[in-house]
Amino acid sequence: MKDKYWIAFSSLEQIDSSFTLKLFKYFSDIEKAFNASSNDLKNVEGLSVKKAENFLRLRDKVDPDKVLSEVTKRGIEYLTFDNEQYPFMLKNIYNPPAILYYKGDLESINFEKTIAVVGSRKTSKYGKDAVNLIISGLKDTDICIVSGLASGIDTTAHLAALENNLKTIGVIASGFDHIYPSSNKELYKRIENGNGIIFTEYYPTFEPLKFRFPQRNRIVSGLSYGTVVAEASIKSGALITANLTLEQGRELMCIPGLITNPNTEGIYKLLKNGATLVTSAADVLETLNWEIKPTEQLKINLTDITENEEKILKSIEIEEKSIDEIITETGIDFDTLLINLTTMELKGIIEQVNGDRYKRVG
Fold this sequence. Notes:
The protein is of the alpha/beta class. It has three domains: 70 residues, Orthogonal Bundle (DNA polymerase, domain 1), CATH 1.10.150; 186 residues, Rossmann fold (3-Layer(aba) Sandwich), CATH 3.40.50; 66 residues, Winged helix-like DNA-binding domain superfamily/Winged helix DNA-binding domain (Arc Repressor Mutant, subunit A), CATH 1.10.10. The strands form two sheets. It has a nine-stranded mixed beta sheet, with helices on both faces. A three-stranded antiparallel beta sheet has the order 10-12-11. Helix 8 runs parallel beside helix 9 and helix 9 runs parallel beside helix 10. The protein starts with a helix and ends with a strand. The relative contact order is 0.10.
């Protein structure tokens, strides 16, 4: 089992994901990367002698079997970078986490409909109300709200997601041995117990040190198709997330606020630099070019499908397909396929795009 070597890398506090992935990509095998000799490391392009020596010194104090045991006995699950379930959007950012530890229901999350909501820890009532208003407009859909489980806007966003029957992802800046802030202990439990998932790249014992919060922000934005910033001062951590959103090629949206509030200075700076102004859920959906469908309606439709309809859904599960491609993959004849496609469109479980191509809804 090679997962233990990913965990062993992550247990080294002075070794970050970029180092781990550099070695993994060079050796194409995480076990070989972890057990590399000093001579092996000399051949890794861009790896300094000092970093290599530091890694070797730390590595020799770690037992991969022991660190794996420490994770499993805590009931913590994980996704390594080479796992097929590792979120696609996150894998494609600069410096993705080498491992994601998590608690919660991974299967419940629609990673194709993720929106980050971030802002100030010291938020105003207006800021909280604005976030609640926008998230309530997404009620009962398969959209997932991503935030950092900090106080202020983060907490408001997670709670609003739960109150509106949405899944939520919390990304924390420590290992699971620590809950920060402690006031969010119950919120952690609610998310873990079927309402979403909590992610961290940090080994369980790692503390929520100051430098880890900006590192955490790249995961919040990296998991998301777009980021909504609610309140942020010029020096706010939310501005770091906003800049990361742009660097990652994702949509940046801002909720306008009172110009007398210091926490809106960052908002208006972002808006002046081209961020999209949003005042409703409809604005967010338009920016992301999303159409949404209530999750309950989707469940009803998908419990009453024929054998041919199931074949068609499986064919277009990953990407949109043409009629010819669907015929080739399903073996359904042309006339029967047209009847099924029409019926499925009326049910609202597929839609026609780009001429004769079809894709799943939701």
